[in-house]
Write a structure and sequence with these properties.
- It is a single chain.
- Helix 3 (67-77) packs across helix 4.
- This protein has 17 helices and 42 strands.
- A hairpin with an 8-residue loop joins strand 12 (289-294) and strand 13.
- The longest helix is centred in the middle third of the chain and has 42 residues, at 347-388.
- By secondary structure, it is α+β, with helices and mostly antiparallel strands.
- Among the domains are: 42-161, Alpha-Beta Complex (Topoisomerase II, domain 5), CATH 3.90.199.10; 246-325, Gyrase A, domain 2 (2-Layer Sandwich); 356-479, Orthogonal Bundle (Topoisomerase, domain 3), CATH 1.10.268.10; 526-535 and 604-825, DNA gyrase/topoisomerase IV, subunit A, C-terminal (Neuraminidase, 6 Propeller), CATH 2.120.10.90.
Length: 838
Amino acid sequence: MQELNREQIIPQPIEEEMRSSFIDYAMSVIVSRALPDVRDGMKPVHRRIVYAMLREGLLSNRPFSKSAGVVGEVLKKYHPHGDAAVYDTMVRLAQDWNMRYPLVDGQGNFGSVDGDPAAAYRYTEARLSAIAETLLTDIDKDTVDFQPNFDGKVQEPVVLPAAFPHLLVNGSAGIAVGMATNIPPHNLVEVIDACCHLIRNPEASIPDLMKHMKGPDFPTGGYIYGREGIHDMYKTGRGKIILRARMRTEQLKGGREAIIVTEIPYQVNKARLIEDIAKLVRDKKITGLSDLRDESDRDGMRIVMELKKGEMAQVIINQLYKHTQLQTTFGAIMLALVNGRPRYLTLDRMLRYYIEHRREVIIRRTQFDLEKAEKRLHIVEGLRIAVDHIDEVIRIIRGSSDTEEARAKLMDVFELSEIQANAILEMPLRRLTGLEREKLEAERNELVALITELRAILNDEHKVYDVVHDELRAVQKKFGDERRTEILESSADLSIEDLIAEERMVITITNSGYIKRTAADLYRRQRRGGRGMRGAVAKEEDWIEHLFIGTTHNYILFFTNRGKAYWLKVYSIPEGGKAAKGRPIVNLLELEKDEEIKAMIPVAVFDDQHYLLMATRNGQIVKNRLSDYNNPRKVGIKAIKVADDDELISVKLTSGDNEILLATHAGMAVRFHEEKVRPMGRFTSGVKGITLAPGDEVVGMVAATSESSILTVCEHGYGKRTTISEYRQTNRGGKGVINIRATERNGPVVGILQVLEDDQIIAITQQGVTIRYNVSDLREISRATQGVKLMNLDDGDKVASIARIEKEDEDENGGDEENGELENGEGENGGAETGGEE
């Protein structure tokens, strides 16, 4: 017994065994399961499914067949794995939200974009789609290699002929061992255009190909933001592509709006997306939605989000992009098998590998057709000989004892091959008619022409590529469609103003801290002295304290009485009608306790050529470079150091060459050149701008130009316009000159503005009444006068604030190329008359 036991135990270190076994497993997963072949863009399971359906006769023009039969055929002959895996793969091939061009035509419940699973395979039916058949065209003409299946009983194709670049058209995704692929789908028309261009121009570069192939085209549509990720993917094989849903707004009854989502990013689960939005609303991360529902049906997707009254749709859209899968990133990895090895592929290499595959398919098919035609011509030539000598043929056959003798005599007498002799012996008598003889002659001529054509193709490489080109164009013509995914030039994180039209807005803030914006054209023009119209609702104890003009795309810099600066985009300020109250500014800015907004500046670009000049109630001034404020912070920054008994009252945007005018409550004013104040760092106390009389305070500041005039307005609706030259220039820190007679009739000064002849003025009272009129309606008068009536006031009402509107054809930002200020008249009530130089 010892001699019969030939078993040998070979010692093997476990490290080597693990290494060897894992490498074998990894290569099996990489080559035979997870990665697609660059030639037909298919993994083995996909290839086996479509090939099994072909062999079952489940073509696009045939009746549907039970999916269970397809799964069983695949398992039985080609893919010995789980039935669930095979069926799930087949289901995905039929889902038009996963496949740009589905390969399986499904009937029954094949799941949904909500993530619903397909019905069991005993309930559903399937057949090949028409475009899938083009992947299998000519597979029986020796165009591709075959290999034995897992048990060696049948043959299966190693690769499919693939009449179009399926890897790029439908994309692929898979996770192997230590590597993964994630190739996005593309538009068939564009991919074939790029292929044909490369065939005609073999040296074409990637930028040349991208003129034809714009980028991925996802079955669910939506947007691609930016081309950088597309360029990276095509040039290096890897790239990050940012996808966004397609949304629009609709007007509802009652002045409200709704956001409608019609397309979502690729591979986003719609039901889960809606759940995530609802959770954000519950958690109050998104507060502007009043209703959320899914109205999708067979006609298309439609997710409806109703907004609360007064909410901005664009702001909510931006929040949805930020917090939900309405914006996603597709990490593209162009990895595929090339000659059985995984390779990262650039766009040109991927197309070249496909074109080379089609070249080989065309050559093998042409060779197959040539051999078949030559064999048939050989037989036809024999039949023609027999027909031409039919009497002799009949005599030989009748005189032969058996078939073998007849075959031998025919071969000897007419010098025929055995194949020709057999064809003659099998020829039916009907071939002896005259018509049949003509058919033989016609067939011979056709075969001769075909053989000549096929040999010409095989002998000329250019003609092979011509065939590849023409067949690609035929597929393109038959199955091409429009692009679904729109590519936008801007990069990923687009600012929200890309969704918002730029328009002029009136921004108002009440004394109790309510803010709103209203379209400027809602304030109709009037002549001075009118009663005005209702501009905003204010409580008896509240009034409009600030009014400003800007565009939706401007930044608004907010400066508080305590010297802090905050940033806000105009479009993020809630919009309301003239009579709307607005929203508490504390909900938009993170103000500290006892902070009040004292100045607002619209800014387009934070550059080094402009300055911010700040003035306090006690006459201190500070000059900062505008670029010192180019880093917005939600919690604000310290702009100027303000004493406990002082506060910031005015901020102006200057060019560095402005005339500065400080005006006081009691009707005094000082004028000096801006160069008298040097730029300082942020959070300094500054220098003295004007020397105040006891009880007086600064109510406004103007950064004037030489061609402008100064408009001064008092509490009781009186004011005047005076040229800047009337105010003699002094050094900063002086007492100044009389600006206007602040008499009992006029009341104290509430604000000053620099104005031009073509400007318009908006004045607003504490009770919310506004008037808009042309500056040209107010003639210029001398400096030390009482002025004229600008507007009639109701009993107990007072002017609160004024603002200037430039003529429509001037620059929106105050006449400057990039930055500018539309003058704002700040001020407070109270104060005593003071004396000074006249």
